[in-house]
């Protein structure tokens, strides 16, 4: 057996962090997942035998080439797709179909354009039976948390891309999901706003009890955000690696970590 290309970065600190994560209870568990789409009268396999467990409060990033099934995987975890075989559980409870234990954020924001920021955040709360008054108070707290208090009564079209994405995130989080599924949420943002949103997300994630399953095609983003990176290949989508990310989160501009960062990125590039 050959040594793992990143073995030299596998310090005791990283080992220790990983052991601590693996000792937490499972949060999102996918087992034996098979998914095909019908195509020209025959079935095309998109996901083949996916097994993966994210532990409580873990930040998982999913990378892989276009068409490898990342969005399909997120959608079926969210309960928005059927599948031939497989089991999905959240906190050890098998789920089928959508539920409030999973929140989802898309690249396209998917805010309700006819509702104000406040009403967008309140929507799910009221839907789940909360009174208008409590929902409004709760929504305003979330809006404060991401610094949008001045925009509570604005409409989505009056906001920048980064602001819309902040609303999409708090709208999902307000429903207190156990797992937040994010499908390329920052891909439409310019680099400056993307970095700002990444920092926002890490800040939020540190302060609440949530497991994040974050899809991106940006390897640097994955290295920056994730505890672990799930790497998929295409045709059919299969897991080729689950990579523990070095600590502390390295960024290209942090020159003292650049060697480690580049080694991690080069390794991921060799896989995708
Ligand atoms: P990714 O997000 O990794 O780019 P997707 O999950 O969007 O990949 O798609 C994986 C594969 O499944 C692609 O080949 C895509 O064309 C196919 N696919 C996705 N959704 C559908 C659908 N609703 N019907 C048929 N094929 C689909
Ligand atoms: Mg996709």
From TrEMBL:
This is ABC transporter ATP-binding protein. Coiled coil: none annotated. Residues 28-259 form the ABC transporter domain. The keyword Cell wall biogenesis/degradation does not apply. The keyword Transport applies. InterPro entries: AAA+_ATPase, ABC_transporter-like_ATP-bd, ABC_transporter-like_CS, ABC_transporter_ATP-bind, P-loop_NTPase. PROSITE patterns: ABC_TRANSPORTER_1 (PS00211), ABC_TRANSPORTER_2 (PS50893). It comes from the Bacteria. One of its GO terms (molecular function) is ATP binding. Belongs to the ABC transporter superfamily. Keywords: ATP-binding, Nucleotide-binding, Transport.
């Amino acid at each position: 057996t050959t040594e793992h290309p990143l073995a030299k970065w596998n310090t005791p600190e990283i080992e220790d962090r990983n052991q601590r994560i693996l000792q937490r209870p499972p949060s999102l568990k996918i087992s034996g997942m098979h998914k095909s789409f019908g195509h020209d009268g025959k079935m095309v396999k998109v996901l083949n035998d996916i097994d993966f467990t994210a532990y409580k409060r873990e930040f998982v990033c999913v990378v892989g080439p276009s068409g490898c099934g990342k969005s399909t995987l997120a959608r079926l975890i969210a309960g928005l797709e059927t599948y031939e075989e497989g089991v999905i559980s959240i906190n050890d409870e098998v789920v089928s179909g959508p539920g409030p234990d999973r929140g989802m954020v898309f690249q396209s924001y998917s805010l309700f354009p006819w509702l104000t920021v406040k009403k967008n955040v309140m929507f799910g709360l009221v839907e789940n039976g909360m009174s208008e008054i409590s929902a409004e108070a709760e929504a305003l707290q979330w809006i404060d948390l991401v610094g949008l208090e001045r925009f509570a009564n604005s409409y989505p079209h009056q906001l920048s891309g980064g602001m819309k994405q902040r609303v999409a995130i708090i709208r999902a989080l307000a429903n207190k999901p156990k797992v937040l599924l994010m499908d390329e949420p920052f891909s439409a943002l310019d680099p400056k706003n993307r970095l700002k949103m990444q920092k926002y997300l890490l800040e939020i994630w540190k302060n609440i009890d949530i497991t994040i399953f974050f899809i991106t095609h940006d390897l640097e983003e994955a290295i920056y955000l994730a505890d672990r990176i799930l790497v998929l290949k295409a045709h059919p989508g299969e897991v080729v690696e689950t990579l523990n990310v070095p600590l502390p989160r390295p960024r290209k501009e942090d020159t003292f970590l650049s060697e480690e960062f580049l080694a991690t990125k080069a390794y991921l590039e060799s896989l995708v």
